[in-house]
Specification:
alpha/beta, 11-stranded mixed sheet, 478 residues, single chain
């Protein structure tokens, strides 16, 4: 079998690299070729330097030849544009960031490189990361790799599109209100939102620690298998003496968790927005897989979640959006309509200092409720959004345009909760992938990953949900 047959996981590529079946330079060239082809279809790349990629890959080959054995040695990875890569632009979808070229890697990128990773490309985001649709006036619209009429999600939509298209083995995204989970769900891949305070944000723009976001936003891994995502997560966790929220931590191996005997809670509707029939069936299929693996399963009802929408936006924009407007002023008003509307709409959320303290109290109480709810189980399985990837500019579940954010409260709630969540693909509806959220207690990321791995093994994961669709669409194109 050819070393390039099929679409191997990152773990399989690493095994082939270690076994000498393929060189890092050969793999890098293959990824560059696939990147070019995929980007012509999905528009997900903001920056790529082929000469640098091939030079770094050749250096990885030289390191391996003298006995180096980094966990990611020679593996190409992609990085969301908001995360700093030394020498590469970090425009974050905005004309206001035209001259931002960091001289240092973000902590997470530096850790991936220290493990031998080769940075392949930077990937698209919506401007300022403030959308569930990856579109900006600077870079245009990123398309879903399975259906160009539909969104790849946001704000890590470029990562979702490239990994879903088989053009990137592994990547780094960020998640504030669902920005890893939504693209993973829409594009049929695996994504993990780490526990709050587990992974340093150092090197991300716009930074969030000094804002009302506090610790709700986090960098996390995205890939085509749970094992791949767990591998990258294990390398990026722990304090860096710069991010004031993150302390030293070593993540246990998810493979040490026996799913048999785990207590699983689940719900197939969040009470805030009606899910599609396929969404309900997908949650129940995931739960069946865990029950078949020996877990104890019980249907449950989450705490009321609608309040998450107000808390999230009032914490995000306690200044009425003043900082965002100042950060983006140099763009001279060159924004997509959605961001223009949001920058104006956020003015209503401005709080006095006493009102902000009251909002922080509500935020803390909501976090406590969510943590107590999840603590009743080892893992909770829930929908991601009310349906699969919607048409561009529309809501999931009904494909209708609208400015409401209620279809996403089931994501915001766990962000406020500071809880670890793995999204794993399970099934499809109308030919589009459907995943589930697998939620665990704080700093029990490995338990969420273990349950997600059992679901993946039973249902087929990425390959079962997306590859047949990709092949059929490629045949149509030919």
């Amino acid at each position: 079998m050819s070393a390039f047959a099929g679409e191997p996981s990152a773990g399989e590529w690493l095994r082939r690299l270690a076994g000498g079946d393929v060189s890092s330079r050969e793999l890098a060239q293959r990824c560059l070729d696939r990147l070019e082809s995929a980007n012509s279809r999905v528009n997900a790349v903001t920056h790529v330097d082929p000469d640098r990629v091939l030079a770094d890959a050749a250096e990885a080959d030289r390191a391996r030849a003298v006995g180096a054995d980094g966990a990611l040695l020679g593996l190409p990875v992609t990085v969301k544009d908001s995360i700093a890569v030394a020498g590469a632009p970090r425009r974050c979808g905005s004309f206001a960031r035209a001259d931002d070229v960091p001289t240092e890697d973000a902590t997470t990128v530096a850790r991936a490189r220290a493990a031998g990773a080769v940075v392949l490309a930077k990937t698209t985001t919506p401007e300022y990361m403030w959308s569930y649709e990856t579109e900006s006036a600077l870079h245009g619209r990123t398309l879903n790799p399975l259906d160009a009429a539909r969104t790849s999600g946001g704000s890590s939509g470029g990562e979702g599109a490239l990994i879903g298209a088989g053009a990137s083995p592994l990547g780094l995204g960020t998640d504030g209100g669902g920005s890893i989970r939504v693209p993973s769900h829409y594009c049929g891949i695996v994504g993990h939102r780490p526990s709050a305070r587990l992974v340093p944000e150092t090197g991300v723009w716009p930074s969030t620690r000094e804002t009302g976001f506090v610790d709700m936003s986090t960098i996390g891994p995205m890939g085509r298998s749970v094992a791949d995502v767990a591998l990258l997560l294990g390398l990026i966790v722990g304090g860096d003496d710069t991010d004031p929220f993150v302390a030293p931590f070593v993540l246990p191996d998810f493979r040490t968790i026996d799913v048999q005997g785990l207590r699983i809670g689940f719900y197939d509707a969040d009470g805030a927005w009606p899910p599609t029939d396929g969404t309900r069936a997908t949650v129940r299929r995931a739960v069946e897989a865990l029950e078949e693996a020996g877990a104890a399963v019980a249907e449950t009802v989450p705490p009321p979640l609608e309040e998450a929408n107000e808390i999230f936006f009032r914490m995000m924009a306690a200044d009425g959006g003043a900082r965002a407007r100042a950060d983006l002023a140099a763009a001279g008003g060159r924004h997509v309509a959605q961001l223009d509307w949001l920058l104006g709409d956020l003015a209503q959320y401005e709080l006095s200092i006493s009102d902000y303290f009251a909002m922080v109290e509500r935020w803390a109480a909501f976090r406590s409720r969510m943590q107590r709810f999840v603590a009743g189980f080892d893992v909770v399985v829930a929908p991601v959004t009310p349906g699969p990837a919607p048409l561009h500019g529309c809501r999931p579940g009904d494909d209708e345009p609208g400015e409401t954010y209620l279809p996403w409260v089931n994501l915001m709630a766990y962000s406020i909760g500071g809880l670890p969540v793995t999204v794993v693909p399970v099934a499809s509806e109308r030919g589009l992938p459907l995943g589930v959220q697998v939620i665990a207690r704080p700093f029990h990321d490995h338990v969420a990953l273990a349950a997600a791995s059992a679901i993946e093994e039973a249902t087929g994961g990425y390959a079962a949900v997306t590859v047949p669709l990709l092949e059929s669409r490629q045949k149509e194109e030919r």
